[in-house]
Amino acid sequence: MPMTRHFLDLSRLSADDLRAILDDGHARKAARQGKPKGWVDADAPARDHVLAMIFEKNSTRTRFSFDAAIRQLGGSSIIATASDMQLGRGEPVEDTARVLSRMVDAVMIRANDHEDVERFARFATVPVINGLTDRSHPCQILADLMTIEEHRGPIAGKLVAWVGDGNNVCHSFMHAAQKLGFHLNVACPPEYHPDLRDLTVGGPSVTLTSDPHEAVRGADVVVTDTWVSMGDQDYEERLEAFEGYTVDDALMAEAAPDAVFLHCLPAHRGEEVTDAVIDGPCSLVWDEAENRIHAQKAVLAWCLAGG
């Protein structure tokens, strides 16, 4: 039986596979310079392949980048929300996985519950890609790592500071730290710290603190995300808890002189980041958003090659 390669969490990848996917993303982006956005990569690894995309959560970057990615690899896509499908009427995840495996070559899911994606992958016979869950966002971190390496060289040995909510994006950064040899300082209010299981996965490569100044001091990269994610019901409580965690010019000044700023977007300007930082010279957020396409092309190519 051919091997089915799923892409569910960075913690499940070997360091070599993670490095290979990043390198392929860099190479595919470089090969497209000067080409129109609809141009198909020369090797077209997804030619005659169909990607299904299922969305339980609203999406801008994930939806557009995956659609562009599969097209640039020579394939096509079918897009549906959960409410468009029998999933929205109670069909078991396992049954949907079995059916779609007969109809498409890969499935990307942006889901509420991480366990639903795990269940889908257990019963699918085609690659399943985690486009975001409540637990992790591995595709976003690949784009972040690509962006850092484009502007500051290899990620190994770098100091990355995460400031804000210990959310799904933070978890995936922790997964990557040990694999690729960089250190991650995570600054969160105690009641919003990351899942301690993920902290264990990161091991000595991750330091947890409640002091954003301690986390950012000397950092090569400063990263934040919205304090209130889709589905969170405690908006006022979060705003109060995260007071003092805004990434502003004063906080960036404590990082390394050539430090860069990342945010996966959408940003709540004036909350987790100021206009001066996100629109300033240290910000790489627009390159970061574009790199979702190139990183996900590398993920798709890696998944499809497994078969």
How would you describe this structure to a colleague?
This protein is globular. α5 crosses α12 (285-305). The protein is an alpha/beta fold. It has helices spanning 15-31, 61-72, 93-101, 114-123, 138-152, 168-180, 196-202, 212-216, 235-241, 249-252, 275-278, 285-305, and strands at 50-55, 76-81, 106-110, 128-132, 159-163, 183-187, 206-209, 221-224, 260-263.
Secondary structure tally, helices:
12
How are the strands of the largest sheet arranged?
7-6-5-8-9
Measured on Cα atoms, how large is the radius of gyration? Answer: 19 Å
Cα shape? globular
Structural class: alpha/beta
In oligomeric terms, what are we looking at? Answer: single chain
Instruction: Count the beta strands.
Output: 9
Major β-sheet profile: 5 strands, parallel
State the share of residues found in helices, binned by percent. 40-55%
- Beta-strand residue percentage: 5-15%
Runs in which pLDDT lies below 50 for 5 or more consecutive residues are none
What is the straight-line distance between the termini?
A: 9 Å
What is this structure, in a nutshell?
The protein has helices at 15-31, 61-72, 93-101, 114-123, 138-152, 168-180, 196-202, 212-216, 235-241, 249-252, 275-278, 285-305, and strands spanning 50-55, 76-81, 106-110, 128-132, 159-163, 183-187, 206-209, 221-224, 260-263. With 307 residues, the chain is an alpha/beta fold.
